[in-house]
């Protein structure tokens, strides 16, 4: 269940002192990457830090990290039980995400971290994470059309929800590549709140990273993280050299990630794994695929899944070209997030046919067999897995299991 309100989470957090300062990150695309860069910078700078991002990647507890390591299942379950007990005693009836947020904050308190890097779950203003009290810096990443039924039909309406994480006197770093109308909404809201907006410069960073394979959106995310770090930790080393060094060591799975899936397919197939799940992130993925994988007009074999309600037509319009092959599959149940449902493969494939895809493959619930089909279909050509972070999770989990056997 998703129920946007701060009343329950605020009461749930009354017993958990916020002994750490927060970097709070909202946006449609890039916020997870900004969180990864930020916590890596804090850790490299000698600060103890926690990170809370969602959804989880493989196990439910890996969405919470302390000092760049996911917390153990024992630590997670102990804190979660304390939070659930509090919920039962007060009769709050908190949602799954509220319980998860309170668990993350409980762990940050118990581990005595100095900083918490927190990704907004959905929107901003009424998201459970916005109940935190001590913010050092807020960050608003690239905004796109997603979750319109809850956040608004236009980019401007959605931007206003995201801007709700601002606080008086707390600097807000904003991705300048957002549209002018979005930036105006954010700037107007900042004036009302009494927060100062900061735009990160990118030219020097782009120059320092030229030839390193960083895409424009990755440089933008890194620049946002760097400026937020400089504003939140003015006494730490924030040189460009230090940033580039930290960035090169930062790993954020499921975003333009190259993977060897031969332990599943048995044939040495390399794939590109990306959680692109809305038209804007699909556009970025499509540009990358065009530049890196479609050399000489090579067709691409896609393995796709999506959450129900996503703009699949908008996503496919960006990704597919005539001559491509497509398999669609359902992702499995999402642990701790029962409201997330997979779209039907048949619907995805019906749309794919409109874009010139021949003989699409309906993988139903069988991801291993779907990956084997894609590998055989590609015959050494590029395979891209995309459309959902939940599909990314399933692939990574399957890969772990296949290597453990």
From TrEMBL:
Enzyme class name: ligase
Signal peptide (UniProt feature, chain positions): none
A molecular function GO annotation: ATP binding
Domain of life: Eukaryota
GO BP field: one-carbon metabolic process
GO CC annotation, single: cytosol
EC number, UniProt record: 6.3.2.12
This protein's pathway: Cofactor biosynthesis; tetrahydrofolylpolyglutamate biosynthesis
Record-stated family: Belongs to the folylpolyglutamate synthase family.
Protein name per its UniProtKB record: dihydrofolate synthase
Species: Coniochaeta hoffmannii
Lineage, uppermost ranks: Eukaryota, Fungi, Dikarya, Ascomycota, Pezizomycotina
């Amino acid at each position: 269940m998703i129920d946007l309100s701060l009343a329950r989470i605020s009461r749930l957090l009354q017993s958990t002192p916020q002994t750490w300062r927060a970097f709070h990150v909202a946006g449609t695309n890039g916020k997870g990457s900004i969180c990864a860069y930020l916590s890596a910078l804090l850790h490299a700078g000698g600060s103890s830090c926690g990170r809370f991002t969602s959804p989880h990647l493989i196990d439910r507890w890996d969405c919470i990290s302390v000092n760049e390591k996911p917390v153990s299942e024992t630590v997670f379950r102990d804190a979660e039980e304390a939070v659930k007990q509090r919920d039962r005693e007060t009769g709050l009836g908190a949602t799954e995400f509220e319980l998860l947020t309170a668990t993350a904050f409980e762990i940050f308190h118990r581990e005595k971290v100095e900083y918490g890097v927190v990704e907004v779950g959905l929107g901003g203003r009424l998201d459970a994470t916005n109940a935190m009290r001590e913010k050092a810096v807020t960050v608003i990443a690239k905004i796109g059309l997603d979750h319109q039924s809850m956040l608004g039909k236009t980019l401007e309406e959605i931007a206003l929800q995201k801007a709700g994480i601002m606080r008086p006197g707390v600097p807000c770093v904003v991705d300048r590549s957002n549209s002018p109308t979005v930036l105006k909404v954010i700037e107007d809201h900042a004036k009302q709140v009494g927060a100062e907006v900061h735009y990160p410069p990118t030219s020097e960073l782009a120059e320092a990273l030229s030839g390193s394979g960083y895409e424009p959106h990755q440089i933008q995310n890194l620049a946002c993280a760097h400026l937020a770090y400089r504003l939140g930790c003015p006494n730490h080393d924030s040189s460009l050299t230090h940033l580039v060094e930290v960035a090169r060591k930062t790993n954020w799975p499921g975003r333009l990630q190259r993977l060897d899936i031969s332990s599943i397919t048995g044939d040495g197939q390399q794939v590109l794994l990306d959680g692109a799940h809305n038209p804007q992130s699909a556009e970025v993925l499509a540009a990358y695929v065009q530049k890196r994988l479609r050399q000489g007009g090579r067709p691409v074999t896609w393995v796709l899944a999506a959450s129900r309600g996503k703009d699949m037509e908008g996503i496919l319009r960006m990704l597919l070209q005539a001559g491509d092959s497509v398999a669609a599959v359902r992702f499995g149940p999402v642990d701790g997030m029962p409201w997330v449902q997979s779209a039907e493969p048949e619907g995805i494939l019906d749309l794919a046919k409109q874009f010139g895809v021949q003989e699409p493959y309906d993988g139903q619930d069988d991801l291993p067999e779907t990956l084997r089909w894609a590998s055989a279909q590609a015959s050494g050509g590029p395979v891209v897995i995309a459309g959902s972070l939940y599909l990314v999770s399933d692939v990574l989990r399957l890969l772990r299991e296949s290597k453990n056997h």
